[in-house]
Amino acid sequence: MTTAITEPVNTPIEQTRWRIDPDRSSVEFEVATLWGLMTVGGHFGSYDGTLDLSRTPAIELTIDADSLDTNHAVRDEHLRSAEFFDVENHPYVRFVSDSATLSGQRLKASGRLHAAGCSMPLELDGWLRRAGDELEIDVVTFADHRQLGMPTWSPLGMLRTTSKLTVRGRLVSGSDLY
Known about the structure:
Blueprint: E1 18-20, E2 26-33, E3 38-44, E4 47-51, E5 59-64, E6 68-69, H1 73-80, E7 92-103, E8 106-115, E9 118-131, E10 134-144, E11 162-173
Antiparallel strand pairs: 1-4, 1-11, 2-3, 2-11, 3-6, 4-5, 5-7, 7-8, 8-9, 9-10, 10-11
């Protein structure tokens, strides 16, 4: 078995515009339901994001809310409805950072999450790691969907008020996607 040795990239993370590669990344969510006995998870299939620590905003993530998928068509339509994401009037979910810092591989950011015509403050905590001439990203945050005007009930029982949001995958330098 041969192990490839990759040379470090000469361009620092801080001075490069990075774009999420949607073919090798994921934007996922989880929320506890049935009084915490069951977790419903899903993902968004269409999104675009950038990271550039030399500018403000340093992080932008735009998600097509209609691309929501929990692997249950009736639930997905309900989540797309005016009661939750209201995709007809608000087709995108966006995160825009106010500040972002990188300490070693540790990424911390704060900003605003915009969804369903509302916005809320959000803190991100994650990791950026070199992978050849790309970056691996792993970010987790928690959002109280009440702050976005979304309900805390469901036909099967109480929803927890906090949803876990995870972004994992690869970032490539901005020119590599064009």
